[in-house]
Amino acid sequence: MNIFLSEITGSCLLILLGNGVVANVVLAKTKGQGAGWIVITFGWAIAVFVGVYVAAAGSGAHLNPAVTIALAIKENIWNNVHIYFAGQMTGAMVGASLVWVQYRRHFDETENADLKLAVFCTAPAIRNIFSNLVSEIIGTFTLILGVLFISTPQTTLGSLGGTTGYAINPARDLGPRIMHAVLPIKGKRDSDWSYSWIPVIGPIIGAILATIVFRFTSGG
């Protein structure tokens, strides 16, 4: 139960603050409208820090199915994986819903349906299945390898996000995307389900590859 609740809380704060900064930058008539990519990446760095800090004691603060998979492979422990996944997805969905509540009037004032979707989930700058998948694999590989060597690369991955928005976290993308489909958002478009598998499969592949490289380079 501690793992489940901690992952819900940490993932909720991650998405509330991370997707919240996106909403502040891209939605109409906010005080942060047009602030740009640097503000978004910095906001996401703070979101990760807060989420990890809050959830660390209760669950180890995975907040990401890719992290959970990598650590399960590394330690050969799979007993609690489903609990982590459930907490991460639930927290991400709750966090995305809170962002909508916070910025509801600004969603109503925003005419561009693509920007409304961007608050919830990622999309590629140039749509190409192979390139987009590779981008997510590389971004997640970098993240997970750093995690396995006990560092914090989450705060420095902005340089890799210009291609797909660097989901690097299946729950971060899929949970809010589901809420975009469910919530009564004025003037919304479809939830781009044709792309939705890439930010899920790419991070999983990246996590597995990072774990393999870690074993070879660390002797673990």
Q: Name the CATH class.
A: Mainly Alpha
Number of domains: 1
Q: Which whole number gives the mean pLDDT?
A: 92
User: Which word captures the global form?
Assistant: globular
Order of helices and strands: HHHHHHHHH
Termini gap: 30 Å
Proportion of residues in β-strands: under 5%
Please identify, by name, the CATH architecture: Up-down Bundle
Number of helical segments? Answer: 9
User: CATH H level: which superfamily?
Assistant: Glycerol uptake facilitator protein
Total beta strand runs:
0
CATH topology category name: Glycerol uptake facilitator protein
Return residue spans where pLDDT drops below 50 for at least 5 consecutive residues. 152-156
Please characterize this protein's 3D structure.
The structure is a single chain. This protein is mainly alpha-helical and 220 residues long. It has one domain: Glycerol uptake facilitator protein (Up-down Bundle). It is 68% helix and 0% strand. It contains nine helices and no strands. α1 (2-26) packs antiparallel against α2 (37-59). The longest helix is centred in the first third of the chain and has 25 residues, at 2-26.
